[in-house]
User: What shape does this take?
Amino acid sequence: MSSFSKQHVMKIVIIGDAAVGKTSFVHRYVNGQFSQTYLPTMGVDFSVKVLRWSEKETVRLHIWDIAGQERFVSMTRVYYKGALGCVVMFDVTKLSSFLKCHHWKQDLDNKVMLPSGAPIPCILLANKCDLPERVVTADSIAEFSKNNGFFTWMETSVRDNRNVDEAMRRLVQEILSVQSSEDQTLSSLEDSVDLQSRKATKRKNCC
Ligand code: GDP
Ligand code: MG
Assistant: This one.
C-alpha cells in the first residue's frame, strides 16, 4: 500500500431470523460459494473481506454473522458495539421472518448509534427471491423499509448470486457518505466550541 492510500475499517453486523440465509450470504460474499447444507450458526461468526474501493482507498470489512436462534433474539450491546453498518435479512417465503425485522431493527437502534446519535446505516435484504413460493410482496417491503429507517432495500438470492456484491457495495457507500457528513457536523461543532472559548478568553484578557 502506498503512503497515500487510506484504509477504512468497518464493522458490519448481519441480523435476522434463523435460516433466512445470513451465513450463506456472508459465505457467498467472502468466499464466492453457496452450500445447501444447513448448519445453524452458534454464537457469532466473524469474517474479513478487503475491498479495493478506489485508487487510494481500501475498505476492510469485519463482518459479524449473528446467530438467529430465538434464544439470541435480543442481541447484547457487545455484538453491536462499534458497528458502522447493518444488514437486516428475511426470507421472502416466510412471513414471520419479515414481520420480525421490525424487532431486529429496534433492537439494533436501541443499542448502537453514531456519535451524532443517529441510527447506523441499515439495509433490508429480501432473500431467497429465486424461490417460487414467495409470500411477501415488493410493495409491502418498500413501505416497511421506508417506515422503519432503512436507507434502502434489495431483493437477493444467495443461491443464484443475485445482488450479493451490490448490496454490500451500497452499504459501504452509505457508511462512507454518512461518515463524511458526521465528520463535517463534528468539525463544525468543534469550530463553534473553539470560537466560543476564544471569545471568552479575549473578553477575559481585555478586562
Ligand atoms: P442463517 O440461519 O440465516 O444463517 O441461514 P443459512 O445461511 O444457514 O441458510 C439457511 C438455508 O437456506 C440453507 O439451507 C441455505 O442453503 C438456504 N438458502 C440461503 N440463501 C438462499 C437463497 O437465496 N435461495 C435459496 N433457495 N436457499 C437459500
Ligand atoms: Mg447462520
Q: What stands out?
A: The first strand starts at residue 6 and ends at 15. The domain at 6-206 is CATH 3.40.50.300 (Rossmann fold). Residues 164-206 form the longest helix (43 residues). The chain has one domain: 6-206.
